[in-house]
Design goal:
The chain is mostly helical. The protein has eight helices and two strands. A two-stranded antiparallel ribbon has the order 1-2. The protein is elongated.
Amino acid sequence: MELFEYKNLLEKYYEGNSTTHEEELLKEFVKGYRGNDEEFLMAKHMFNAMKTESKETVAIEFDSIVKNETPILKIRKPIRYLLSGLAASLLVGIMLTVLLKTSEKVVYAYVDGQPIYDEQVAIEQSKKALLNISSQFNKGTKGLSYVNKMNKPVELLTVKK
């Protein structure tokens, strides 16, 4: 195999797409590699580290781990969850009662600075106000006759030719 083929094998190995046979070929090549290509030198170092780590043994007994790590059920967690749920339910209940009870009344009109909440009373007050305004219009333009005299000084000031 040529050098570029081993590079392709190395890429396949890093991607996890190589077969066990290809991995063995790559390990044998890298083991005897004497060049200065950085990729192959890193792969050689990685394979050597994996080989030495696989030979190490761990001096821990399984039974001692199981005995020491058995969790003891504490009562605090269930109580904490119970209290959290209770508090959340209480908050939701308070919010719903506040929102349902504080429905704002509709203000239909203001008379002398006081709000009127009844629609019929507001309609009656509006009718009174409109009748008062229209009664002033019903008197006619009799009082406007004096406005004509106000235009006379303008006529006097203008020079007639």
